[in-house]
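User: Here's a chain of 184 residues. Predict its fold as tokens.
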Amino acid sequence: MVSDAATTVLWQEPLSAFLAGRQQTKLEDAFAHPPRRVLVKRPLASDAIGRIELPSLGRDYIVIEGTATADLRKGPGHYTDTPLPGEPGTVAIAGHRTTFGAPFRHNDKLRKGDTIRLEMPYGGFTYRVERNRIVDPDDLSVKRPVRYDRLVLTACHPLYSAARRIVTFARLVRRDPRSKVTKG
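Assistant: Prediction complete.
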């Protein structure tokens, strides 16, 4: 138990990381061959819809549609009440920080000017980080549209707690009409 606790504190929870890794492998295959509904921007819950690349953190993950508990066990999830990348407005994606692969564990290290890339079957979208902000868990204002297209990433904060949320705000700076759909 001590080694499991130490591993969780220093890295992430090992069993859920293993399970999330297996899910990401399955999602990788699904993303490589997306169904038509994903291509026409009408995904169903748990569909593999894209890849998020966090170059400054050396991380990339397949993003799924939905933020239900079961969805976020597979990887980062797109809030279904926000637009998909490439549509006008605020795109929002949630992810865990300590369990299930901890895709957003180090989002607190994202700095102004860092890039975040979303590769979708229908195009690629590059965002530049503007800032991080800590908010209450019920603060839905972070998903509101603003005067420009943006991305928000949300995760629990601080580590090992769901008391608050860390939110990363990033502005769309580039659109590529076709996605590479390759691993970052």
